[in-house]
Specification:
Strand content: under 5%
Shape: rod-shaped
Keywords: Membrane, Transmembrane, Transmembrane helix
Largest sheet: none
Number of domains: 1
Order of helices and strands: HH
Distance between the termini: 103 Å
Number of helices: 2
Helix content: over 70%
InterPro entries: DUF6133
Pfam family, one: DUF6133
Radius of gyration: 31 Å
């Protein structure tokens, strides 16, 4: 019985050590922060593209069309 208790104690301590190492590990932190930066850049780029296309479609293109029609029309 003493041998089984020692084996169980060893297993518990080993599992505790592995969990502590996994929680204290910061090796993947760099990849997570880079991933967040990439996602932010993609979202901001999409917002900028949507804003510029809205500006061009609503104001610039109709005015250019009107000016060209006035020149040749």
């Amino acid at each position: 019985m003493n041998r089984a208790a020692a084996a169980a104690t060893f297993t518990v301590w080993n599992t505790k050590r592995q969990a502590k190492e996994a929680l204290c590990n910061e090796r993947g932190d760099f990849y997570i922060s880079d991933g967040v930066k990439i996602i932010i850049a993609v979202v901001l780029g999409a917002l900028l593209l949507a804003a510029l296309s809205g500006i061009f479609n609503d104001t610039v293109i109709p005015r250019i069309t009107h000016e060209i029609e006035a020149l040749f029309g």
